Amino acid sequence: MRERLTPKRNARCAHAKKHGTCPVTGEPLGKDDLVELRVDGGEATAPIDAGTMSVPELLVQLKQQFDASALEKYELRKKLMEARKELSHSLYRYDAACRVIARLMSQKDKPEAPKEEEKDNAARKRTASEALAPQEQPASKAKPDEEKIDRATAVVEDIANFAATISALRKKRSMPADLIKADEFSKFEERSGGQVVGGGTVEISSMCCYGPLVAVGSSRGKVAIFDSTQGQVVAGAEIHHENPITSVSFVRSSSLVDTGESAGNANVLVSDTSGVVKLWTPEGTKHALQGELSLTQGPAGLVSLSMHASGSYFMATSNNDSWYLCDVNKLDCVKACKDSNASTSGGFTCGAFHPDGMLVCTGLANGPTTLWDVRNADPVGQLKGHVSGISSVSFSENGYHMATSDSYEDGHVRVWDLRKLQEIKCLPLMPEGKSRVYTVQFDTSGRFLLAGGEAGMSVYGAKQQWRSLCSISCGPVRTATFGPSARWLAAGSSGNKFALYGV
Q1: What pairing do the DSSP bridges indicate for beta strands 232-233 and 222-227?
Q2: pTM here?
Q3: Which of 75, 154, 224, 268 has the fewest CB atoms within 10 Å distance of its CB?
Q4: Mind listing the pLDDT tens digit for each residue in 160-179?
């Protein structure tokens, strides 16, 4: 038995000598069994004699003992934390030392690289801007294949650098002050409209909005520019192609928040069924052809264009087995990428750039949606769920939502979570009845999703658990687009006519 050193030690010793037992437990006890315990850093604490103390004195003694034990516990915990900190530092230094030793051992065993190889490695580390700059070379030493490979590498590096920058900015961006509220969509009605002039049967095939302007392409090879502020087509601003238009896109600026103030001076990219992309630049009220790029051969044509967020590159998707990464400024193809399964699945039907620009998405006529890594043109994921082929695809500005649609008679809009590569919502176009879905598009905030199809169009709210905010029965809608801050939307309603809807 261990006892603290107390003034009554002699009495306990006398009891043990007289009776030979412990006064508390009754077990055998001798004088030699008693051990003195001393408290480090202070004097021994006398035990409480409850029999001779009043209640206030007893409470004071209990409080003092509690304070002493709490202080002791604090000191012990403080020493424990200091010991843990010292241990972690020691382990970190040990790990760093092991890494240094391993690196030195590997350098010792590895032969030195030749100077020629060092020069090649230095050349590969050139920045994208240096690689894209024109360089004078003697004609006899020109190597087109090597130059093309180096340029493709430089473009990919430029895209990767831009993705890192815009991803960091996206986390800090705020929503537009004039962004429409969800309950305002129920008040949408037709405000104005126009038509694309052309002989014979004309259908609206594509649309693109930039600021107050809407570019509207038709199956007769004409593109009309509609001014939403004036509510009419800009006279003399039409663009003419010899073949049906498949896609139109404004060349936007590279800023994260693009208000569209420079829309009147923006170039326009137009693709058609012949596989040609033409770049048109505004000159006064008209548009002049600045250049053209032929990407496909034979009967293959282009089905869609998608601008990169930097405004320097675009993706062109053909209706066979290829998609192309192209440079807007040079108007040439940087990289052509093929899908071995596309030819047996009816070819591509659509394509789009991810907001960060590191991924692209393609849809097949009879197959799944495929995500591609721009850096090496390898597929990184497939999204399966549609009964028939994909008719349209659109990425949300938040970077992790994507919407797809199919033109099956009982078509649906499907929303995907790219972080898990899983479908999170399957939406019908209209609340009642079946309808094919031809187009889907997110607004620039990522808050709202627009879908158009055979029976009309609907708007869904991402913050409202993808609930339908409004449905407009306006006949077949082949293509549709949101205006700035989703304050209005334009749709190719029927034939050569298009309409603008808003509050």
Answers
A1: antiparallel
A2: 0.68
A3: 75
A4: 888 888 877 777 778 888 89
